[in-house]
Amino acid sequence: MDRAEKQELVSTLNDTFKSTGVVVVAHYAGLSVSDMTTLRGKMKEAGAQVKVAKNRLAKIALEGTDLAHMTSLFEGQTLIAYSDDPVAAPKVATEYAKTKDKLVVLGGGMGQTALDADGVKALASLPSLDELRAKIVGMVQTPASRIAQVVQAPGGQVARVIQAYADKGEAA
Fold it and tell me: How far apart are CA 100 and CA 42, in angstroms?
C-alpha cells in the first residue's frame, strides 16, 4: 500500500468514525476466509459493515473524532464493525462471537461513550430500531382497531336484531 492509498484509507475511516452510530472493535486472529466472508454477509444483512485496517492507520483516523477514546483497543489483529443503527453491529458481532471462539469482542464506542466488551453485549441485547418502530406502529394501530370495532359493534347488533325479526316473520 503506497502513501496515497494510506491517506485515502485514513480519510475514509475518519469519515466513517465521525458519521457512524456505533463502532465495535474485535480480535479476529485465526478466523478463516470463509468465516470472515460469513461475518461480512451477516453484517451486511443487518445494515452494518466490517473493515480490517492496520492499527496504526485506524489510530490516526480516530484522531479528532468522538471515538478517539478507542485507540487503546487497536492492538493485535483487529477488525472494525460499524453501523448507523446503534444495535446492528454489536448484535451481529456478539452473536457471531458466540459461535466462533476466534472472534473476540474487545469493546467499542457510541459517540463519546466508551464501551467495554460487556457494554457491547448489553447494547446487543437491546431491540433494533426496526423492531422498536414495529412495536410503536403496533401500539398505535391497536387503539385505532379497537375504536373501529367499538363503533361497528352497535351497527352490527342492530343488523342482527333486524335479521332475527325477519327470520321470525318468515317462520310465522
Answer: 14
